[in-house]
């Protein structure tokens, strides 16, 4: 079963990798990092769906293993 992440968990991971908050669009937080595309994190209560987490991971250009390693260090 995939690990479950909340909005705050994902934001902690994104910020730890050098992304900076840029703005909100509705219920979505947008983060930027020079040389990369924008990472969009939807705000929702509870845990994010595994597919949503996978999409955020892809936006960060990380493999599943890299993302899990970072999550273990940060959380």
Keywords:
Metal Transport, Frataxin, Chain A, 3 helices, 3 strands
3D structure, described in words:
The protein has three helices and three strands. Helix 1 crosses helix 3. It has one domain (7-64): Metal Transport, Frataxin, Chain A (2-Layer Sandwich). The protein is 41% helix and 20% strand. With 75 residues, the protein is of the alpha+beta class. It has a three-stranded antiparallel β-sheet with strand order 1-2-3, covered by helices on one side. The model has no long low-confidence stretch (mean pLDDT 97).
A few lines on this structure:
The protein has 75 residues and is α+β, with helices and mostly antiparallel strands. It contains 3 helices and 3 strands; from the N terminus they run αβββαα. A hairpin with a 6-residue loop joins β2 and β3.
């Amino acid at each position: 079963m995939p690990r479950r992440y909340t909005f705050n968990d994902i934001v902690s991971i994104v910020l730890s990798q050098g992304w900076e908050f840029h703005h909100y669009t509705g219920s979505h937080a947008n983060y930027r990092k020079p040389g990369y595309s924008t990472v969009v994190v939807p705000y929702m209560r509870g845990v994010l769906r595994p597919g949503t987490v996978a999409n955020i991971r892809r936006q960060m250009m990380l493999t599943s293993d890299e993302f899990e390693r970072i999550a273990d260090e940060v959380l």
